[in-house]
Specification:
The complex is a heterodimer of chains A (136) and B (148).
Chain A (H helix, E strand, L loop, with lengths): L10 E7 L3 H10 L10 H6 L9 H15 L4 E9 L9 E12 L3 E12 L2 E13 L2
Antiparallel strand pairs in A: 1-3, 2-5, 3-4, 4-5
Chain B lengths: L16 E6 L5 H10 L34 H5 L1 E10 L10 E14 L2 E13 L5 E11 L6
Antiparallel strand pairs in B: 1-3, 2-5, 3-4, 4-5
Classes of the chains: A alpha+beta (136), B mainly beta (148).
């Protein structure tokens, strides 16, 4: 994708995914997040949760994956997220976003984007990202 | 100006380091496994000399998540509210990551459910060349004390 088409309001191609409990366990292990609520329905329920949940970092990392798939050559400079609710395996997750600002220089195009992760029609994670695309 | 911060914390604690740690060299296999667990397909994350996906930096959690002046009981009432990451040099296989955590900010906000306290820990990570690889501001929110 050329930087020329990335105007304010441009929609980032959505990432839609349903994660299994095993995938969540695999991420939690790879990310060294040992919390039992990321591994077991039973333990999560004892903690008052509806069942196994994703680490907040995994939701954030899915938003980062969406950006990488959209602009593989871009460099992610900043990523900020607010965790608004739990995200669970077994139910569709929809990541989306759009360009909110664009700055052009001789060396690069810098983009700011708003990001959203939804599940069951609710915004569970919101965020902002700054990306840089070097001109070459 | 208030003489103490929320939770009765001494303002002089702001900016103090409460944890530091140094990792073992990052293995290519650890990067590949992290990327695969997310379904990433970018070729830079795979192969013998991979670059890590940006969020790989969250792995370097150190030894403690919060300042020792904040009671564990307070944290049991809280949850991870979010984070802001500034990325620096990419993490590559073979890198040794040093992480330093400071208490960055403590503030109170009043919402619909009452007063809430936010604790912000700032984790700065550098590689073996002294380059900053990431700086993460972790926000932890403490719910108000239950009345029961």
């Amino acid at each position: 994708m050329s930087a020329g088409s990335l105007e304010i309001g441009h929609e980032i191609p959505r990432l839609e995914i349903v994660l299994s409990g095993d995938q969540v366990r695999r991420y939690a292990t790879a990310a060294q997040m040992p919390g039992a609520r990321f591994f077991s329905d039973e333990v999560a329920r004892k903690e008052g949760l509806p069942g196994q949940i994703l680490p907040g970092n995994m939701g954030m990392a899915l938003l980062s994956r969406m950006l990488t798939e959209w602009l593989p050559e871009a460099r992610l400079e900043k990523l900020g997220v607010t965790f608004r609710g739990i995200v669970r395996p077994g139910t569709p997750i929809v990541c989306s976003g759009f360009v909110t600002d664009r700055r052009d220089s001789d060396a690069a195009v810098e983009l700011e984007c708003d990001l959203i992760l939804e599940q069951d029609g609710e915004r569970r994670i919101t965020g902002v990202a700054e990306l840089r695309l070097d001109r070459s | 100006m208030s003489e103490t911060l929320p939770l009765g914390l001494d303002p002089s604690l702001i900016g103090t380091e409460f944890d530091s740690s140094t990792s073992a060299p990052v293995a290519a296999e650890e990067i590949r496994e992290y990327a695969e667990s997310l379904g990433e397909t970018h070729p830079a994350y795979f192969g013998p000399n991979p670059v890590a996906p940006p969020t790989f930096c969250v792995r370097f959690r150190g030894n403690r998540f919060f300042h020792p002046s904040i009671s564990r009981q307070a944290f049991f009432r809280g949850f991870d509210a979010g984070k802001d990451i500034q990325f620096g040099a990419p993490i590559r296989a073979g890198d040794v990551i040093h992480a330093s955590n400071i208490l960055h900010e403590v503030y109170e906000k009043t919402g619909r459910t009452g007063s809430m306290v936010f604790i912000v820990s700032r984790q700065t990570m550098t590689n073996q060349r002294g380059e900053m690889v990431a700086r993460i501001d972790n926000r932890f929110m403490l719910r108000p004390k239950e009345e029961t």
